[in-house]
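QUALITY CONTROL LOG
STEP: pairwise intake check
CHECKER ROLE: data steward
CRITERIA: each record must contain a sequence immediately followed by its structure tokens, with no blank fields

ENTRY 1 OF 2
RESULT FIELD BELOW
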Amino acid sequence: MTEKEQWDAAQAYQMTGGPAFPVMLPEAKIVYTGMTIRDWFAGMALQGMAPHIDDEVKAARWCYEMADIMLKERLK
């Protein structure tokens, strides 16, 4: 992996929290497939507010804002 690829991977991990459910291969390598922790957090926020949604776009934005806040808190 080049230095730029390492930097890009680190940036993506920082922004998304990495994979929510990484898959371990027999060779003990991690495969980053599926949703990210950011997506998982946003989905959990949406689940809690689902009965109160009147604007889906605003709800989605709010959920990802909450997910971003949760990711920042994890770094403390």
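ENTRY 2 OF 2
RESULT FIELD BELOW
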Amino acid sequence: MPGSNSRLVAYSQVVLFFGAFLLFWEYGVRYFEVKSYILPPLSAIVVAVWEARTEVFEHSMYTLAEVLIGFGAAVVIGVMLGMVVYVSPFAQRTIYPLVTALQTTPKSALAPLMIVWFGYGFISKVAMAFLFAFFPIVVATLGGFAGTAKNLEEHFRALNAGPWRTFTTLRLPSALPSFIDGCRVAMPLAMIGAIIGELVGSERGLGNLIMMATASSRTDLVFGCIIVITLISLALYALIEFAAKAVWWRGIQV
């Protein structure tokens, strides 16, 4: 089974690479006598996370909720706005340039403003996650609708299909692959937005825990939180990839 063997080789290469990287991290810092407050060994990071596991878990769930709600709001509002811009020339001339201008604004500069508007609590971090994830969803939705095959549109017109039927059976399925690509970009950005919001000012969350660990010179816990953030982001990205498998017509030329 050549296909199975090639996949096994590929997975083995990944495991060996990361295994070697982790071993080098663990023993390299010891061999070169790197100060633990600069780069602690991997074992110290694992111990730090385990000792603070309850606190890390609670802050992780708080950050995860911020990301999921912010991402969900970005998907709902982004898709709706993308649809409006696609069907309305007026929206293309007015709303879309405003959204583009918002995208060019450094999002981290908006974090203090979110705190002024919504306080140090949960809502301001959801707003940051939303702002980071919103634009890729809008652009992907627009690109998906605009990429509908012209010959299929002519076919639907020849069949006298109404606007709603054309939208639900042609344009919406045609836009789904592009929408999934937008979600791939938007999900990690939502995590970045939530963490930036927590670092600027927060009461809970992994960003807040990083700030407290930094103030206590707990570099091992700081690295542990960063690793937890990375693992959560990878898990969320994997969910998007799993959902993408349902879009089986992706890449098919018509």
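INTAKE CHECK: passed for both entries
DESCRIPTIVE NOTE, ENTRY 2: The mean pLDDT is 88.
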